[in-house]
Write a structure and sequence with these properties.
Serine Threonine Protein Phosphatase 5, Tetratricopeptide repeat; 66% helix; 21 helices; mainly alpha; 411 residues; elongated; binds zinc ion
Length: 411
Amino acid sequence: MDETASVTFVSVLVALLIGLTIGKAWERYKLRGGRWIDRRKARKSPHYILGLNFLVSNQIDLAIEELSNAAGLDADALEVHMILGNLYREKGQVARAIQVHQALLQRTGLSTIEHAYVLLCLGLDFKRGGFVDRALETFNEVLRLDFDNRYALINLGKLYEDQHQWSEAYTMRKRVMALAEPESQASHRSILAFLETEIGQEARSDADTNEAISRFEAAIELDKSTVPAYLNLGDVRLASGDAEGAISAWEHIISVEPNRAYLAFDRLDDSYPKVGAPKKFQELCRRLIASNPLDWRARQALARHLTERGAVRDALELLLEALVHNPHALSIHQSILQTLTKLNFDSVLVQRYVELTRGAIFYLDPHICTNCRYRSTELLWQCPQCHEWKTFLEERMAPAKEPVDPHRDRE
Ligand SMILES: [Zn+2]
Protein backbone atom coordinates (compact mmCIF):
# COMPACT_ATOMS: atom_id res chain seq x y z
CA MET A 1 0.00 0.00 0.00
CA ASP A 2 2.56 2.59 1.01
CA GLU A 3 4.94 1.65 -1.79
CA THR A 4 2.14 2.30 -4.30
CA ALA A 5 1.60 5.71 -2.77
CA SER A 6 5.29 6.59 -2.92
CA VAL A 7 5.58 5.40 -6.52
CA THR A 8 2.59 7.56 -7.38
CA PHE A 9 4.12 10.48 -5.59
CA VAL A 10 7.39 10.14 -7.44
CA SER A 11 5.66 9.85 -10.81
CA VAL A 12 3.59 12.89 -10.04
CA LEU A 13 6.69 14.89 -9.21
CA VAL A 14 8.24 13.69 -12.44
CA ALA A 15 5.12 14.80 -14.29
CA LEU A 16 5.37 18.12 -12.55
CA LEU A 17 9.03 18.58 -13.44
CA ILE A 18 8.34 17.71 -17.06
CA GLY A 19 5.62 20.33 -17.05
CA LEU A 20 7.88 22.95 -15.56
CA THR A 21 10.74 22.12 -17.94
CA ILE A 22 8.47 22.73 -20.86
CA GLY A 23 7.09 25.82 -19.19
CA LYS A 24 10.61 27.20 -19.17
CA ALA A 25 11.48 26.25 -22.71
CA TRP A 26 8.23 27.55 -23.88
CA GLU A 27 7.52 31.03 -25.10
CA ARG A 28 5.33 32.99 -22.78
CA TYR A 29 3.44 34.73 -25.48
CA LYS A 30 1.97 33.32 -28.60
CA LEU A 31 0.26 34.89 -31.56
CA ARG A 32 -3.18 33.44 -31.87
CA GLY A 33 -5.89 34.70 -34.20
CA GLY A 34 -3.81 37.83 -34.84
CA ARG A 35 -3.52 38.62 -31.09
CA TRP A 36 -0.74 38.04 -28.62
CA ILE A 37 -2.08 35.78 -25.89
CA ASP A 38 -0.45 35.69 -22.47
CA ARG A 39 0.29 32.02 -22.05
CA ARG A 40 1.00 32.49 -18.38
CA LYS A 41 -2.68 32.98 -17.75
CA ALA A 42 -3.44 29.43 -16.66
CA ARG A 43 -0.20 29.17 -14.74
CA LYS A 44 -0.80 32.45 -12.90
CA SER A 45 -4.26 31.46 -11.77
CA PRO A 46 -4.86 30.46 -8.14
CA HIS A 47 -6.27 27.17 -9.42
CA TYR A 48 -2.89 26.25 -10.83
CA ILE A 49 -1.05 27.12 -7.61
CA LEU A 50 -3.63 25.23 -5.54
CA GLY A 51 -3.44 22.29 -7.89
CA LEU A 52 0.33 22.12 -7.47
CA ASN A 53 -0.03 22.31 -3.70
CA PHE A 54 -2.45 19.40 -3.73
CA LEU A 55 -0.02 17.53 -5.95
CA VAL A 56 2.81 18.01 -3.51
CA SER A 57 0.65 16.76 -0.64
CA ASN A 58 -0.41 13.86 -2.87
CA GLN A 59 -4.11 14.74 -2.84
CA ILE A 60 -4.68 13.73 -6.40
CA ASP A 61 -8.44 14.20 -6.67
CA LEU A 62 -8.24 17.77 -5.43
CA ALA A 63 -5.25 18.44 -7.67
CA ILE A 64 -7.23 17.21 -10.67
CA GLU A 65 -10.12 19.48 -9.74
CA GLU A 66 -7.98 22.60 -9.44
CA LEU A 67 -5.88 21.87 -12.50
CA SER A 68 -9.02 21.23 -14.55
CA ASN A 69 -10.20 24.69 -13.52
CA ALA A 70 -6.85 26.15 -14.49
CA ALA A 71 -6.98 24.35 -17.84
CA GLY A 72 -10.45 25.78 -18.39
CA LEU A 73 -9.02 29.31 -18.22
CA ASP A 74 -6.74 28.67 -21.15
CA ALA A 75 -7.40 25.76 -23.42
CA ASP A 76 -3.88 26.24 -24.85
CA ALA A 77 -2.04 25.60 -21.59
CA LEU A 78 -0.18 22.54 -22.77
CA GLU A 79 1.62 21.59 -19.59
CA VAL A 80 -1.51 21.87 -17.46
CA HIS A 81 -3.29 19.41 -19.74
CA MET A 82 -0.24 17.21 -19.76
CA ILE A 83 -0.12 17.06 -15.96
CA LEU A 84 -3.85 16.41 -15.85
CA GLY A 85 -3.41 13.48 -18.22
CA ASN A 86 -0.60 12.16 -16.03
CA LEU A 87 -2.81 12.41 -12.96
CA TYR A 88 -5.55 10.41 -14.67
CA ARG A 89 -2.95 7.77 -15.40
CA GLU A 90 -1.79 7.74 -11.78
CA LYS A 91 -5.38 7.24 -10.69
CA GLY A 92 -5.60 4.25 -13.02
CA GLN A 93 -7.80 5.98 -15.60
CA VAL A 94 -5.47 4.99 -18.41
CA ALA A 95 -7.95 5.35 -21.28
CA ARG A 96 -8.69 8.89 -20.24
CA ALA A 97 -5.00 9.73 -19.91
CA ILE A 98 -4.37 8.35 -23.40
CA GLN A 99 -7.25 10.42 -24.75
CA VAL A 100 -5.92 13.64 -23.17
CA HIS A 101 -2.37 13.10 -24.41
CA GLN A 102 -3.44 12.02 -27.90
CA ALA A 103 -5.58 15.15 -28.18
CA LEU A 104 -2.52 17.24 -27.33
CA LEU A 105 -0.58 15.57 -30.13
CA GLN A 106 -3.19 16.77 -32.61
CA ARG A 107 -2.29 20.38 -31.89
CA THR A 108 -0.58 22.29 -34.62
CA GLY A 109 2.53 24.27 -33.89
CA LEU A 110 3.98 22.07 -31.16
CA SER A 111 7.73 22.55 -30.92
CA THR A 112 9.89 19.44 -31.22
CA ILE A 113 10.52 19.34 -27.48
CA GLU A 114 6.82 19.77 -26.65
CA HIS A 115 5.99 17.01 -29.09
CA ALA A 116 8.58 14.76 -27.46
CA TYR A 117 7.24 15.37 -23.95
CA VAL A 118 3.62 14.74 -24.89
CA LEU A 119 4.74 11.50 -26.56
CA LEU A 120 6.66 10.59 -23.42
CA CYS A 121 3.48 11.01 -21.34
CA LEU A 122 1.58 8.91 -23.85
CA GLY A 123 4.26 6.23 -23.69
CA LEU A 124 3.89 6.14 -19.90
CA ASP A 125 0.11 5.75 -20.37
CA PHE A 126 0.61 2.79 -22.70
CA LYS A 127 3.13 1.25 -20.34
CA ARG A 128 0.78 1.63 -17.40
CA GLY A 129 -2.08 0.15 -19.42
CA GLY A 130 0.05 -2.86 -20.37
CA PHE A 131 0.15 -1.98 -24.09
CA VAL A 132 3.78 -3.00 -24.39
CA ASP A 133 4.21 -2.72 -28.16
CA ARG A 134 2.64 0.70 -28.34
CA ALA A 135 4.69 1.87 -25.36
CA LEU A 136 7.90 0.65 -27.04
CA GLU A 137 6.96 2.35 -30.27
CA THR A 138 6.07 5.60 -28.53
CA PHE A 139 9.23 5.80 -26.41
CA ASN A 140 11.32 5.12 -29.52
CA GLU A 141 9.50 7.96 -31.24
CA VAL A 142 10.43 10.21 -28.30
CA LEU A 143 14.08 9.30 -28.85
CA ARG A 144 13.84 10.15 -32.56
CA LEU A 145 12.74 13.66 -31.54
CA ASP A 146 14.96 13.99 -28.49
CA PHE A 147 17.90 11.60 -28.73
CA ASP A 148 19.05 11.93 -25.11
CA ASN A 149 15.68 11.85 -23.37
CA ARG A 150 16.52 10.14 -20.08
CA TYR A 151 12.94 9.26 -19.17
CA ALA A 152 12.38 7.55 -22.50
CA LEU A 153 15.69 5.69 -22.23
CA ILE A 154 14.96 4.49 -18.69
CA ASN A 155 11.42 3.42 -19.48
CA LEU A 156 12.47 1.65 -22.67
CA GLY A 157 15.18 -0.14 -20.74
CA LYS A 158 12.68 -1.34 -18.13
CA LEU A 159 10.26 -2.50 -20.83
CA TYR A 160 13.02 -4.44 -22.57
CA GLU A 161 13.96 -6.01 -19.25
CA ASP A 162 10.34 -7.04 -18.69
CA GLN A 163 10.36 -8.63 -22.15
CA HIS A 164 13.70 -10.32 -21.41
CA GLN A 165 15.22 -8.45 -24.38
CA TRP A 166 18.48 -8.18 -22.51
CA SER A 167 20.66 -6.83 -25.33
CA GLU A 168 18.24 -3.98 -25.99
CA ALA A 169 17.98 -3.29 -22.27
CA TYR A 170 21.77 -3.21 -22.15
CA THR A 171 21.96 -0.65 -24.96
CA MET A 172 19.44 1.61 -23.20
CA ARG A 173 21.25 1.37 -19.89
CA LYS A 174 24.54 2.29 -21.58
CA ARG A 175 22.95 5.39 -23.03
CA VAL A 176 21.48 6.36 -19.65
CA MET A 177 24.89 5.82 -18.10
CA ALA A 178 26.56 8.07 -20.68
CA LEU A 179 24.23 10.88 -19.56
CA ALA A 180 24.58 10.23 -15.84
CA GLU A 181 26.59 12.10 -13.23
CA PRO A 182 29.99 10.65 -12.28
CA GLU A 183 28.71 9.65 -8.82
CA SER A 184 26.02 7.38 -10.25
CA GLN A 185 28.27 5.62 -12.79
CA ALA A 186 29.02 2.76 -10.41
CA SER A 187 25.37 1.84 -9.88
CA HIS A 188 24.70 1.91 -13.63
CA ARG A 189 27.77 -0.24 -14.21
CA SER A 190 26.52 -2.72 -11.66
CA ILE A 191 23.18 -3.02 -13.49
CA LEU A 192 24.98 -3.37 -16.82
CA ALA A 193 26.86 -6.28 -15.27
CA PHE A 194 23.58 -8.00 -14.36
CA LEU A 195 22.27 -7.45 -17.89
CA GLU A 196 25.53 -8.82 -19.29
CA THR A 197 25.01 -11.89 -17.08
CA GLU A 198 21.49 -12.36 -18.48
CA ILE A 199 22.84 -12.16 -22.03
CA GLY A 200 25.41 -14.78 -21.06
CA GLN A 201 22.66 -17.05 -19.73
CA GLU A 202 20.86 -16.74 -23.05
CA ALA A 203 24.02 -17.78 -24.85
CA ARG A 204 24.32 -20.67 -22.42
CA SER A 205 20.83 -21.93 -23.13
CA ASP A 206 21.67 -21.67 -26.86
CA ALA A 207 24.67 -23.91 -26.08
CA ASP A 208 27.07 -21.16 -27.17
CA THR A 209 29.69 -21.83 -24.50
CA ASN A 210 32.36 -19.41 -25.70
CA GLU A 211 29.92 -16.54 -25.97
CA ALA A 212 28.49 -17.36 -22.55
CA ILE A 213 31.95 -17.42 -20.96
CA SER A 214 32.96 -14.12 -22.50
CA ARG A 215 29.69 -12.51 -21.37
CA PHE A 216 30.14 -13.68 -17.78
CA GLU A 217 33.74 -12.48 -17.82
CA ALA A 218 32.62 -9.13 -19.20
CA ALA A 219 30.06 -8.84 -16.39
CA ILE A 220 32.77 -9.44 -13.80
CA GLU A 221 34.97 -6.92 -15.56
CA LEU A 222 32.17 -4.34 -15.28
CA ASP A 223 31.52 -5.03 -11.61
CA LYS A 224 33.67 -7.37 -9.55
CA SER A 225 30.79 -8.05 -7.14
CA THR A 226 28.40 -9.57 -9.70
CA VAL A 227 27.81 -12.85 -7.85
CA PRO A 228 25.55 -14.56 -10.46
CA ALA A 229 28.24 -14.02 -13.11
CA TYR A 230 30.75 -16.04 -11.04
CA LEU A 231 28.18 -18.76 -10.36
CA ASN A 232 27.33 -19.07 -14.05
CA LEU A 233 30.92 -18.81 -15.19
CA GLY A 234 31.81 -21.70 -12.90
CA ASP A 235 28.84 -23.76 -14.11
CA VAL A 236 29.83 -23.30 -17.77
CA ARG A 237 33.46 -24.11 -17.06
CA LEU A 238 32.47 -27.22 -15.12
CA ALA A 239 30.14 -28.34 -17.91
CA SER A 240 33.01 -28.05 -20.38
CA GLY A 241 35.22 -30.20 -18.16
CA ASP A 242 37.21 -27.46 -16.41
CA ALA A 243 36.64 -28.21 -12.72
CA GLU A 244 39.68 -26.16 -11.61
CA GLY A 245 38.40 -23.13 -13.51
CA ALA A 246 34.93 -23.61 -12.08
CA ILE A 247 36.24 -23.74 -8.52
CA SER A 248 38.33 -20.65 -9.07
CA ALA A 249 35.27 -18.73 -10.32
CA TRP A 250 33.17 -19.81 -7.33
CA GLU A 251 35.95 -19.10 -4.83
CA HIS A 252 36.11 -15.54 -6.09
CA ILE A 253 32.68 -14.94 -4.55
CA ILE A 254 34.17 -15.57 -1.12
CA SER A 255 36.57 -12.67 -1.50
CA VAL A 256 34.25 -10.20 -3.24
CA GLU A 257 30.96 -10.93 -1.42
CA PRO A 258 31.62 -13.21 1.57
CA ASN A 259 27.98 -12.91 2.67
CA ARG A 260 26.92 -14.59 -0.58
CA ALA A 261 29.56 -17.30 -0.51
CA TYR A 262 26.91 -19.80 0.60
CA LEU A 263 25.44 -19.71 -2.93
CA ALA A 264 28.52 -21.63 -4.09
CA PHE A 265 28.65 -24.08 -1.15
CA ASP A 266 26.95 -27.05 -2.84
CA ARG A 267 28.94 -26.55 -6.00
CA LEU A 268 32.25 -26.36 -4.12
CA ASP A 269 31.40 -29.30 -1.88
CA ASP A 270 30.74 -31.41 -5.00
CA SER A 271 33.75 -30.20 -6.94
CA TYR A 272 36.65 -30.21 -4.46
CA PRO A 273 36.90 -34.04 -4.48
CA LYS A 274 37.07 -33.91 -8.30
CA VAL A 275 40.32 -31.96 -8.13
CA GLY A 276 41.74 -34.15 -5.39
CA ALA A 277 41.05 -31.72 -2.52
CA PRO A 278 38.31 -33.40 -0.43
CA LYS A 279 39.36 -31.58 2.77
CA LYS A 280 39.06 -28.15 1.22
CA PHE A 281 35.36 -27.69 1.84
CA GLN A 282 35.71 -28.17 5.58
CA GLU A 283 38.63 -25.75 5.63
CA LEU A 284 36.64 -23.20 3.70
CA CYS A 285 33.66 -23.38 6.07
CA ARG A 286 35.85 -23.16 9.16
CA ARG A 287 37.65 -20.16 7.71
CA LEU A 288 34.34 -18.42 7.01
CA ILE A 289 33.03 -19.16 10.50
CA ALA A 290 36.25 -17.84 12.06
CA SER A 291 36.10 -14.63 10.04
CA ASN A 292 32.41 -14.09 10.71
CA PRO A 293 31.12 -15.79 13.87
CA LEU A 294 27.54 -14.93 12.84
CA ASP A 295 27.79 -16.98 9.62
CA TRP A 296 25.08 -19.58 10.19
CA ARG A 297 25.05 -20.75 6.57
CA ALA A 298 28.67 -21.88 6.69
CA ARG A 299 27.87 -23.80 9.90
CA GLN A 300 24.83 -25.39 8.32
CA ALA A 301 26.77 -26.37 5.18
CA LEU A 302 29.60 -27.81 7.22
CA ALA A 303 27.09 -29.69 9.39
CA ARG A 304 25.60 -31.30 6.30
CA HIS A 305 29.06 -32.15 5.02
CA LEU A 306 29.97 -33.76 8.37
CA THR A 307 26.66 -35.62 8.66
CA GLU A 308 27.27 -37.21 5.27
CA ARG A 309 30.61 -38.41 6.60
CA GLY A 310 29.15 -39.82 9.82
CA ALA A 311 30.29 -37.07 12.20
CA VAL A 312 26.73 -36.47 13.36
CA ARG A 313 27.43 -35.11 16.86
CA ASP A 314 29.92 -32.56 15.52
CA ALA A 315 27.29 -31.57 12.98
CA LEU A 316 24.69 -31.06 15.68
CA GLU A 317 27.04 -28.83 17.68
CA LEU A 318 27.49 -26.61 14.62
CA LEU A 319 23.74 -26.44 14.03
CA LEU A 320 23.05 -25.50 17.64
CA GLU A 321 25.65 -22.73 17.31
CA ALA A 322 23.99 -21.57 14.10
CA LEU A 323 20.65 -21.51 15.90
CA VAL A 324 22.01 -19.11 18.53
CA HIS A 325 22.84 -16.60 15.79
CA ASN A 326 19.75 -17.15 13.70
CA PRO A 327 16.87 -18.62 15.69
CA HIS A 328 14.35 -17.63 13.00
CA ALA A 329 15.63 -19.67 10.07
CA LEU A 330 13.35 -22.63 9.67
CA SER A 331 15.94 -24.59 7.70
CA ILE A 332 18.26 -24.74 10.72
CA HIS A 333 15.47 -26.22 12.83
CA GLN A 334 14.80 -28.76 10.11
CA SER A 335 18.49 -29.71 9.91
CA ILE A 336 18.61 -30.04 13.71
CA LEU A 337 15.56 -32.29 13.78
CA GLN A 338 17.01 -34.47 11.03
CA THR A 339 20.27 -34.72 12.93
CA LEU A 340 18.49 -35.50 16.20
CA THR A 341 16.63 -38.27 14.40
CA LYS A 342 19.99 -39.77 13.45
CA LEU A 343 20.97 -39.59 17.13
CA ASN A 344 17.71 -41.32 18.19
CA PHE A 345 16.51 -38.19 19.99
CA ASP A 346 19.12 -38.32 22.74
CA SER A 347 17.17 -36.64 25.54
CA VAL A 348 20.05 -34.46 26.74
CA LEU A 349 20.51 -33.05 23.21
CA VAL A 350 16.79 -32.56 22.70
CA GLN A 351 16.66 -30.65 25.99
CA ARG A 352 19.48 -28.33 24.80
CA TYR A 353 17.59 -27.69 21.61
CA VAL A 354 14.41 -26.83 23.51
CA GLU A 355 16.33 -24.41 25.75
CA LEU A 356 17.84 -22.66 22.73
CA THR A 357 14.58 -22.24 20.88
CA ARG A 358 12.68 -20.74 23.79
CA GLY A 359 11.39 -17.34 22.63
CA ALA A 360 12.37 -17.80 18.99
CA ILE A 361 10.16 -16.44 16.25
CA PHE A 362 9.93 -18.57 13.14
CA TYR A 363 10.42 -16.82 9.93
CA LEU A 364 10.09 -18.46 6.55
CA ASP A 365 11.23 -15.73 4.18
CA PRO A 366 14.29 -13.91 5.39
CA HIS A 367 15.01 -11.87 2.22
CA ILE A 368 13.56 -8.43 1.74
CA CYS A 369 13.80 -5.84 -1.04
CA THR A 370 15.27 -2.66 0.43
CA ASN A 371 13.50 -0.65 -2.24
CA CYS A 372 9.89 -1.86 -1.97
CA ARG A 373 9.91 -4.33 0.98
CA TYR A 374 8.97 -7.28 -1.22
CA ARG A 375 9.72 -10.49 0.66
CA SER A 376 11.25 -13.57 -0.83
CA THR A 377 12.24 -16.95 0.55
CA GLU A 378 15.31 -16.99 -1.67
CA LEU A 379 17.82 -14.37 -2.69
CA LEU A 380 16.74 -12.59 -5.87
CA TRP A 381 18.97 -10.37 -7.99
CA GLN A 382 16.12 -8.43 -9.57
CA CYS A 383 13.02 -7.61 -7.57
CA PRO A 384 9.84 -9.00 -9.20
CA GLN A 385 7.82 -6.18 -7.70
CA CYS A 386 9.80 -2.98 -8.26
CA HIS A 387 12.24 -4.42 -10.86
CA GLU A 388 15.29 -2.89 -9.23
CA TRP A 389 18.56 -4.80 -9.25
CA LYS A 390 20.54 -5.96 -6.24
CA THR A 391 18.15 -4.63 -3.62
CA PHE A 392 17.68 -7.76 -1.50
CA LEU A 393 19.05 -8.02 2.00
CA GLU A 394 18.75 -10.89 4.37
CA GLU A 395 16.42 -9.73 7.08
CA ARG A 396 17.68 -10.42 10.56
CA MET A 397 15.59 -10.16 13.65
CA ALA A 398 17.17 -10.02 17.07
CA PRO A 399 16.18 -12.95 19.27
CA ALA A 400 13.54 -12.06 21.85
CA LYS A 401 15.25 -10.59 24.90
CA GLU A 402 13.27 -12.55 27.47
CA PRO A 403 11.10 -15.59 27.03
CA VAL A 404 7.48 -14.48 26.97
CA ASP A 405 5.40 -15.68 29.90
CA PRO A 406 2.74 -17.82 28.19
CA HIS A 407 0.12 -16.93 30.84
CA ARG A 408 0.50 -13.19 30.35
CA ASP A 409 0.62 -13.44 26.61
CA ARG A 410 -3.12 -13.92 26.13
CA GLU A 411 -5.28 -10.85 26.47
ZN1 LIG B 1 11.49 -4.34 -4.82
